[in-house]
Amino acid sequence: MSLVANTGKLAGRTLFITGASRGIGKAIALKAAKDGANVVIAAKTGEPHPKLPGTIYTTAEEVEALGGKALPCIVDVRDEKQIQTAIDEAVKKFNGIDILVNNASAISLTGTAQTDMKRYDLMHNINTRGTFLASKLCLPHLKNSNHAHILNLSPPLNMNPYWFSVHVAYTMAKYGMSMCVLGMSEEFKPLNIGVNALWPRTAIATAAIEMLTGDTSTSRKPDIVSDAAYVMLCKDPKSYTGNFAIDDDVVTAAGVKDLTPYACDPSNIQNLLPDFFLEAPGESKKPEVKSESAGQIPTLFELIGKTITPELVKKTQAIYQFNVKGKEEGVWHLDLKNGDGMCGQGEPKHPADAILTMDSNNFADMFAGKLKPATAFMMGKLKIKGDLQKAMKLEKMMASLKKRA
Predict the structure, then answer these.
(1) Segments of 25-131 assigned E as strands
(2) Residue pLDDT, tens place only, 362-390
């Protein structure tokens, strides 16, 4: 649901949007289309994906249905020739390019030992190199526009070591996009090209978040990001440049008084999942508030043992090790992969798929259903080594635990 009215300022403007076949890129394309903009949908998905909806062609149809003009182009941002071909086609069809939105991105929330170099290269080649390359190749045409913008979907440069420690490869790749903003905004000032970054305050309901957490009820809709992008892209690029903007700040400044309609589940408006890179983890700043259930970890594991069923083992297929810190320091395990499942104190008999480290108070809250693993992870209250997706499967087991408790 868009809460920012279209003004027509992007009518006739040409936007080149990477990763525009779904998610945030698509939402920005559709918002611009309502102004009658020309949209180059530059993405990899030409054939329908077995698990993810949308292709460049279905997005193009939606753009034109809203009054815009579309040019779908198969573009892998790692391929210089594909980007150049798409730019050439765009200039031929629309006589230029006014706005570049660098949205295409790859993510792997893994530590150093768990990040294979293929995945490292993928993130750096799409996020940092792809952003630099698309900006470089669009530059000759942006110079000719009287309303030239580059907008990168990347975070403010938060130098808190925490954000590097949990997934250094991904952080470097996303910060590479942000450094493009830092450098190019200054470099392109004499050319009157505005270069800015936009980042969501909370998780956004995209395929990536659904894959990561299995749940979008604590996320906002992509509309808040597309509304913010629209506001930013309508500003005068001569004076609006070098900003690292946050979506809800932008739409609030534009006059949106109630952000509730952006929430996927309005009942969770006070429990939205914070996005990466914005808040410094509270470990060294705020003392932990003691949980009502502190001192109950042995009891908790006894209760967990009663919730284990063959069906849960079959569905989960994961082994967890919990390194508990603080008042009840110790190591515990939960095996939902072998036999009928088991849990207890000490390391698991078989290698853990995911090792979770957290304070005992937060641990108790997590298993009492008061703190979601995804939220704890994003806030820095939970550190995960190993398979993140399997770690997030704990959510369903906790829901079962809560019902029985």
Answers:
(1) 38-43, 69-74, 99-102
(2) 887 787 777 777 777 877 788 888 887 78
**Alpha carbon distance 127, 171 (integer Å):** 10
Q: What angle do CA 353, 357, 361 make, to 5 degrees?
A: 135
Write the CB contacts of 300 (distance below 8 Å, at least 6 apart in sequence).
293, 364, 367, 368
Which distant-in-sequence residues (6+ apart) come within 8 Å of 59 by Cβ? Answer: 20, 21, 22, 26, 29, 30, 41, 43, 70, 72
CA dihedral 71→25→209→198, nearest 10 degrees, is 160
170 included as an active-site residue: yes
Angle at 335 between CA 307 and CA 317, to 5 degrees: 95
Lowest model confidence (mean pLDDT) among 52-66, 270-284, 307-321, 332-346: 270-284
Query: So what's the pLDDT on residue 288?
Result: 35
Cα distance from N-terminal residue to C-terminal residue, the chain: 38
| Closest by CA position to 386, among listed 356, 362, 358 | 356
Strands 342-345 and 330-336, bridge-based pairing: antiparallel
Going from the C-alpha of 312 to that of each of 340, 347, 388, 404, the distances in angstroms are 9, 21, 18, 14
Place of tokens 């990168």: 152
What's the gap between Cα 116 and its chain centre?
21
DSSP string, 236-286: -TTTS-S-EEEHHHHHHHTT----GGGBSSGGGTTSPPBPTTTSPPTTTTS
Q: How confident is the model at residue 293 (pLDDT cuts 50, 70, 90)?
A: very low
Q: Which two tokens stand for residue 70?
A: 């579309």
- The pTM (predicted TM-score) of the whole model is 0.77
In the set 57, 120, 162, 170, the catalytic residue is 170
